Amino acid sequence: MKEFTEAYDWRDREVVGSDGEKIGKVDEVYLDTANGEPEWLSVNTGLFGMKSSFVPLQGADPSGGSVRVAYTKDEVKDAPNITPDAELSVEEEQALWSHYGLDYDAGYIGANGVGDREEPVGRDVSGPETDSAMTRSEEEVNVGTREREKGRARLRKHVVTEEVTKTVPVRKEKAVLEREPITEGNVDAALDGPAISDEEHEVTLSEEEVVVEKKAVPKERVRLDKETEVTEQQVSEEVRKEQIEAEGDISR
After folding, report:
1. DSSP H helical segments within 8-114, as ranges?
2. Staple 95 to which of 1, 15, 80, 178, CB 3.0 to 4.6 Å?
3. What domains appear along the chain, each with residue ranges and CATH number?
């Protein structure tokens, strides 16, 4: 592939399409993820240059202070919308190659009909160029716990009123009239005093009345404490894993 190291000096140059239409200005030069050579021009397009479009560097011709690319303005404007980043991913590169009708696996087709783009040793997440081995990766689930507030508990004391009924024995005195005949045993007491007279006897009667007294008596101590209960909870999560399949005439 032709060296385009001078393309780094094209920044801010006007970009013109193969149809002669102005497209925008060169913003950055991007490298091929396979061989590290300059391969793409990021062009500021759209209103006020707020959009970036990628166009192949191959076939670009800097002349007269501008850069003429091998594709029309519409082809560049309709290219896949890719956010400019530090590096194009393999998927983004493949999408761009497909849009511009280029064979990603064969590389750019030069004048001699042979792909000028050198095929890397390996294409893997380990890097753009790796050895003949392919790395197989898979996701692993790490499950742990973290503490969060579940709720709150509190003690609150308030006064309620209830009716208590108790049965209490109450004594009271009452006058009872007793009559007894005169006998030899009580005749002397019966004749003690005048024979006929006015006389009065009085007896004091008493009774018990209920007296209610209330006093506060401590009954128990109540405190709020915490205890930990351990339960088991199942967690299900989908994980992705890569599988490597061998195809072709391979001895196992």
Report:
1. 73-77, 90-99
2. 80
3. 1-138 (3.90.50.10)
